[in-house]
Design a protein that fits this description.
The complex is a heterodimer. The two termini of chain A are about 35 Å apart. In chain A, helix 3 links the parallel strand 2 and strand 3. Chain A has a seven-stranded mixed beta sheet with strand order 4-3-2-1-5-6-7. Chain A contains eight helices and seven strands. Chain B folds into three domains: about 160 residues, Aconitase, domain 3 (2-Layer Sandwich), CATH 3.30.499.10; about 100 residues, Aconitase, Domain 2; about 170 residues, Aconitase, domain 3 (2-Layer Sandwich), CATH 3.30.499.10. In chain B, about 30% of the residues lie in helices and about 15% in strands. Chain B has 16 helices and 19 strands. In chain B, the strands form five sheets. Chain B has a five-stranded parallel beta sheet. In chain B, strands 17-16-15-18-19 form a five-stranded parallel beta sheet. In chain B, strand 1 and strand 2 form a beta hairpin. In chain B, helix 13 packs across helix 15. Chain B is globular, with a radius of gyration of 21 Å. The N and C termini of chain B lie far apart (about 50 Å). Classes of the chains: A alpha/beta, B alpha/beta. At the A-B interface, helix 4, helix 6, helix 7 and helix 8 of A face helix 2, helix 3, helix 5, helix 10 and helix 11 of B.
């Protein structure tokens, strides 16, 4: 994955809570065996009606939002299934960060492993961002900080290891492989075998 | 670790290969890795790219369930797979398992089925194990006192290559269920009530332990239904301490330890429980005696009410959006809504006892005119057992369709879908917008409520069928 150290982008806002992974990418798109090209399926049934016509009212269909790297969404974003196709689709579409008050655990894990940044903010900041689509934000990933247009700096929580991996653009498999001796010792010395 | 610990903490501690620090997560050993065709191709591709073998094929169990057809045929080889991409996914699964030396319970296996049905059925899901799968309903296996949770495809790759995962330790949440479930009120009603109580994000960052008299009274299949839907409350996992019920269920199953090893395992399993003075980070209490059959009315499993209760009239914009999608009216009971489709099946309610519940209502009755009812056993073993008991005849004589096993209409990626605008009463786990098909409106319910609704042609209370 690519290293992500900073972001400077306007926001696009989906003011809906509990956006589940079936809405992010419906199950019928999961028969793929690669991780590429899923941007077309992102929010498919919210972007298009059943006849395939563009739903003009859906925020992502406003051409002015097409270059936004940051999605602001309601509380509990990414709930539901474990499909990593959800962050793959968001990234392939062009998003690099999602801001909410809370993320579902598996979605958050999957996002971080692919270089998509889940940014958790407090309710007041969230409400302000929801009410102000198109806000220009700067994100300093190494310091876990978001800068609002008025210069206010908000620090967001993120696992230190995940932040290290995302800013360096490294995946975690290599790190686990370095623990190979410890894994072998564990397998040989545990009190019972599965 | 403090002197008194919870069951979750005990299982966690036993699997730490490298302890967590402020800078790095714990490295956790995985005892059982369940895999299926949808969330593994990209993980196997990574292994091929890096020239890595699967570290422990012997701890990996594979099946095909999500994109597989459920149409009845005499030979599995003849199954028509819906769509070229699904067929390709299935071929890749067969090839990957063959190339990496993994045991695949494929089309020819009498043990094929939904991954969360066959793990327990084979006795592979055992107390004290760490169990993962690229599927959020892996929490099901927590019913055995295992720490079982869903992972993404990148993590599937980690486990295939190293048998380990990097994890921060979640917090603990006790759900205490006192009292006794009334007659005709099932485990599905209980878990829907629990999710309604704590909310769809109430368990985020936590492992739930279900405790109390009402939980102890449940059989293993009911416990699986409970743990299965832990993820719908946002929880990382859900588990129940093992007891005689657990051990009786496992005895004699093909993948449990045999001979002396069985006795040793049982002694170890019996020691797996939360200490009496163990502290949980959070706790919630529910009185089972006050429950009634539950149904959902909105577009997440936390939007739930008693089967005869009126749809609430409070909520924000997201709440109103859900009611609009569902075309339900605040203040009116859900029973006013005519039903188009009834689905009995899934990793939540596709086991033998679930089919028996539904058959109990359908025996000697007919599915209402205009209602399509699909009964999909959770595994080929469940199907075989149900047919031995003659349940399939009850279903087909009532006018329902009797299918091969699979995930089917729970997520509709194999062609078993609900048409746009249709109302489906489903024993599955998610009523998300479009989950069962574009524009499909899903009402989650127990197998008894689903069957009663099929007969009445509208959402119905199974207690009126006595």
């Amino acid at each position: 994955m690519d290293a992500l150290t900073s972001l400077h982008s306007r926001t696009v806002v989906l003011p809906i809570r509990d956006i589940d992974t079936d809405q992010i990418i419906p199950a019928r798109f999961l028969t793929t065996t690669t991780r590429e090209g899923l941007g077309d399926a992102l929010f498919h049934d919210l972007r298009y009606d059943q006849d395939g016509q563009v739903r003009q009212e859906f925020p992502l269909n406003d051409p002015a939002t097409r270059d936004c790297d940051i999605l602001v969404a309601g509380n509990n974003f990414g709930c539901g299934s474990s499909r990593e196709h959800a962050p793959w689709a968001l990234l392939d579409y062009g998003f690099k960060a999602v801001i909410s008050t809370e993320f579902a655990d598996i979605f958050s894990n999957n996002a971080l492993k692919n270089g998509l940044l889940p940014i958790i903010v407090d309710v007041d900041t969230h409400n302000w961002l929801l009410a102000h689509p198109g806000t220009e934000l700067r994100v300093n990933v190494g310091d876990s900080q978001v800068e609002l247009p008025d210069g206010r700096i908000i620090e967001y929580p993120i696992d230190a290891f995940a932040r290290y991996c995302i800013t360096q653009g490294i995946d975690q498999l290599g790190y686990i492989q370095q623990q190979s001796d410890a894994i072998t010792t564990f397998e040989e010395t545990r009190s019972w075998k599965p | 670790m403090p002197d008194a610990s919870t069951l979750f903490e005990k299982v966690w501690a036993e699997h730490v290969v490298v302890p967590e620090t402020a800078a790095t997560p714990a490295l956790l050993y995985i005892d059982l890795h369940l895999i299926h065709e949808v969330t593994t191709p990209q993980a196997f591709a990574l292994l091929r790219e890096r020239g890595l073998p699967v570290r422990r094929p012997d701890l990996t169990l594979a099946t095909m369930d999500h994109s597989t057809p459920t149409t009845p045929v005499s030979s599995f080889r003849d199954l028509a797979v819906v769509g070229e991409s699904a067929a390709n996914q299935i071929r890749q699964m067969e090839m990957n398992c063959q190339d990496f030396g993994i045991d695949l319970l494929g089309f020819d296996s009498a043990h094929r089925g939904i991954v969360h049905v066959i793990g327990p059925e084979l006795g592979a899901s055992q107390p004290g194990k760490t169990i993962v799968c690229g599927d959020s309903h892996t929490s099901t296996h927590g019913a055995f006192g295992a720490l079982a949770f869903g992972i993404g495809t990148t993590e599937v790759g980690h486990v295939l290559a190293t048998q380990c995962l990097l994890q921060r330790k979640p917090r603990s949440l006790a759900v205490n269920v006192s009292g006794q479930l009334p007659a005709e009120v099932t485990a599905k009603d209980l878990i829907l009530a629990i999710i309604g109580e704590i909310g769809v994000d109430g368990g985020t960052g936590h492992v739930i332990e279900y405790r109390g008299k009402a939980i102890r009274a449940l059989d293993m299949e009911a416990r699986m239904t409970i743990c299965n839907m832990s993820i719908e409350a946002g929880a990382r996992a859900g588990l129940i301490g093992p007891d005689d019920t657990t051990i009786d269920y496992l005895a004699g199953r093909p993948r449990v330890p045999q001979g002396d090893a069985w006795d040793t395992a049982v002694r170890r399993w019996r020691s797996l429980c939360s200490d009496e003075d163990a502290e949980f980070d959070k706790s919630v209490s529910i009185d089972a005696a006050k429950l009634q059959p539950m149904i959902t009315f909105g577009t997440n499993p936390g939007m739930v009410l008693g089967v005869n209760d009126p749809v609430p009239d409070v909520g924000d914009a997201s709440f109103r959006k859900a009611l609009d999608y569902m075309k339900v009216t605040p203040g009116k009971p859900m029973s006013e809504n005519p039903v188009d489709v009834v689905f009995v099946g899934s990793c939540t309610n596709g086991r033998l006892s679930d089919l028996q519940q539904a058959a109990g209502i359908l025996r000697g009755r007919k599915v209402a005119q205009g209602v399509r009812m699909l009964v999909v056993p959770g595994s080929q073993q469940v199907k075989m057992r149900a047919e031995e008991l003659g349940l399939h005849r009850i279903f087909t004589e009532a006018g329902a369709e009797w299918r091969e096993s699979g995930c089917s209409m729970c997520l509709g990626m194999n062609g078993d879908t609900v048409a746009s605008g249709q109302l489906s009463v489903s024993t599955s786990n998610r009523n998300f917008e479009g989950r069962q098909g574009i524009g499909a409106r899903t009402v989650l319910a127990s197998p008894a409520t689903a069957a009663a609704s099929a007969v009445m042609g509208r959402i119905a209370d199974p207690r009126t069928f006595n």
